[in-house]
Amino acid sequence: GGIDSAFLAHSLADTGRLRLWTIGIADAPEVEIARSAAGALGLPWGFHGIEREEVARALAQWGPLLGGLRGPARSAVVSLGLAISSAPSRPVIVTGQGADELFLGYAHFRGMGADAADERRRADIEKLDREDGPRLDRIAGGQGRKVISPFTHPALRAAATSWPTFEHLPRDLTKPLLREWARHRGMPEPILQRPKRAIQYGTGVDRLIRRLDRSPPELP
What average pLDDT does this structure show over 136-148? Predict the structure, then answer.
C-alpha cells in the first residue's frame, strides 16, 4: 500500500500478470491500506495472516542469514522473507527494495542537508548492493523464487541521482520526487498522500519479534 510498491504495481498493471500480496498480523494497519490501494489500482490482491509461531520458525530458518542484525533491520528482513515465502506459487516476486535508499525515504534523512544526505545515500546504496540485496536473494532462492527489485536498476539509479539532492529531501512526506513522478503517471491521489510506514511496523512483524525476544526459552 506504500508509494514504492504502488508505483511498481501501477507501472506493471497492463501486463495482466500481476497479483498484489500483503502479509500481516490480524489487526495490522497495512492490511486495510493495501486492500484499499489494490482497489484503487484495479488489481487483484491477496493477504496472508501471520502469527507468532510462523515468525519464530522464520527466525530459526533464516538465522544464519540474519547474522548480527537486530531491531528494525532484522524485522524488516523477516517481513520481506515471509512475504516472499507465503506468496502464491509464482517464480518471480517484484519488490520495492531500493526505493528508500534512492529517493531518501528513510527516517535518518530527515533534518539532513543536501551534502550529508548525498553521502548517506551512497552509503545506503552500497550496503544494499553488498549485504541487503544478496541476503534477500538467498532467502528467495531457498523458497525457489527469484526477486526483482526495479528500483535497483542502474538506469533508474542514474536518472534519480541526476536530480539535485536537495530536490529529494523529505518534506511533509518522504520521497517527494517519486511521488511527483507517480502523480505524472496517473497514480490515484489517495495513494500519493499516504505517509511512509516501514514494512516491519505496518505488518506487525516487529511487534511479534520483540515479544519473542522477551519470551523465556522453551524447555527441551
Answer: 95
Q: Hey, where are the domains in the chain?
A: 3-214
Q: How confident is the model at residue 217 (pLDDT cuts 50, 70, 90)?
A: low
Q: What is the CATH number of domain 3-214?
A: 3.40.50.620
Q: Which pTM does this prediction carry?
A: 0.90
Burial class (CB in 10 A: 0-12, 13-18, 19+), 64: exposed
Please say whether the dihedral angle defined by the alpha carbons of residues 47, 203, 39 and 184, taken in this order, is positive or negative: negative
Q: DSSP readout, 45-114?
A: EEEEE--HHHHHHHHHHSHHHHTT--HHHHHHHHHHHHHHHHS-S-SEEE--TTHHHHTT-SGGGTT--H
Contact 107, 172 (CB under 8 A): no
* Cross-strand partners of 22: 47
CB 79 within 8 A of CB 199: yes
* Predicted pLDDT at 175: 97
